[in-house]
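Structure tokens please, single chain.
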Amino acid sequence: MKKIVIIGGGASGLHLATRLGRYFNSTRMLGLKHEGPSAQITLVDKNRTHIWKPLIYQVAVGTLDTSMDALNYQVHASSNGYEFQLGSLQSLDRKRQILTLGAVLNDKGCELIPPRELEYDYLVLCVGSISDDSNIQGVREHCIPLDSIEQAHNFHKHLLDHLLCLEAYPNKTLQIAIIGGGCTGVELAAELVMASRQVGQYGRICTGAIDITLVEAEPQLLPGLPARLGNSAERELCKMGVRVLTNSHIISVSTNSLTTDDGREIPAAIRAWVTRVKAPEFLTRLDGLVTNQLNQIEVKTTLQSKNDPHVFAMGDCASCIDGNKQRVPLRALAAQQMAKLCSTNLIALIENKSLGHFYYRDRGSLVSLSTNTAVGNLRTAFVRRNLTIEGRIASLAYHSLYQMHLATIHGWPKAILLYLLSQANRAVNPRLKLH
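Here you go.
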């Protein structure tokens, strides 16, 4: 039996584990005899639960309750034919095809599970990305990144603490700065505006008591996407009351302000760092796997590492030039497409079939501007050029992406039930989580 180990339970890793688990173990789960080669699938993640990362900004603001929307890996694994292990990758021995997981500690730093080794025939790395602070003075000490659920909860805690101060001192203003005008930065700014309107319904905080500034180093918001999308997003945010600063490079951060390269000082009690990203640095120390300047693993069009056919990488931690000689962008859509090909190629290797090559299919981009509006562009088989959409239609298209994610990991019947449950929960409970 071949052993496939997947490191990282983000959207792509979870999709891959689900697809492989169902393929190799669906007959066994039904009590039937499996025909053909079999495989043992193991998913490793440092967290016990999964939240779709594009929604992490909602966790930070408090408009998404992780106790309701989080997926438990252990439970999901038992019903989808794969195994789950809690831990994080510590080292790799490619010659022996063995990896080492670090010890699992509790909140007090006490060891719960000692370091352990896992054998593999095929290893898949999909550990995502982290914020790149570019060694700017004060960023690590005074900014909150949004790379993980823990960091999102940390931002939410800081937000609640400052909202409590506003309750005690109604004449004060809470100033929030968001550094990075990409998708996460734009969505976070819009969600904070919505939250500032909601919080006034539960206490003495005035609607205008929260002042939000969005800072972007490039000439437009949403760099890397068509300029009209960045312009539309800026126009909508300005209507909401967000102060948008483009062409502004941050050179230092202090406990209560930001400083730009033109000497401007931006006061901010809360500072979110959601600018450009890179892969985690530990990938550069994995027994000689080829990486680039962003710490990404260099992969072939088959998604195999350039110097080890037994190691695959996908998602934000993979640097890939696809079959059309185009660099694959760091987007959730690309990661999902990679997961589909990776599962196909792993099955092909085990069944002695030829491998496929990755071709990125750009379906467009969508950016949420809170509850009922969004901006984006779509590309379908019927429309060869990009079709720009805004407003409620774009918002419906944006939310459908999450439903498709749920359908992939749960199946459509359960995805529909989860959607109905979430709508019922929103109708019963406050829109904003204040604890």
